[in-house]
Specification:
about 120 residues; mainly alpha; rod-shaped
Length: about 120
């Protein structure tokens, strides 16, 4: 999500990925409590657990918060990109309309008309 979409297809793909990730947030978050409960149970029964596992479990909450913030930031960036594409399309449409009107006016003024 860090790379700005270059076209509408990329924007649609990135929006679909974002929506998919957002839909999974609650499901994934609900898996943390049972995991933490298991480690507390292991601690209660004095089962030795490797330090790196404890460190990962401890870091899990902070990493998850970072992940959720990344999703929020990505949504803002994609909404801005969507607005930029919309603005660009409207500008292009206005330029096309102006060019078409100028061409029509020129044609009506200088076109090959005969009165026969």
């Amino acid at each position: 999500f860090k790379k700005r979409p270059a076209n509408l297809d990329q924007l649609a793909d990135q929006l679909n990925i974002l929506r998919s990730e957002q839909a999974e947030v609650d499901k994934n978050e609900s898996r943390f409590e049972p995991l933490q409960a298991q480690y507390k149970l292991l601690e209660k029964f004095e089962v030795s657990v490797r330090e790196d596992e404890i460190a990962k479990l401890t870091a899990l909450s902070a990493e998850w918060a970072t992940h959720k913030q990344t999703l929020i930031d990505a949504e803002k960036r994609l909404e801005k990109a969507k607005g930029d594409f919309r603005d660009n399309l409207l500008q292009t449409l206005n330029e096309f309309n102006a060019a078409t009107q100028a061409l029509r006016a020129d044609f009506l003024r200088q076109g090959p008309f005969s009165h026969e």
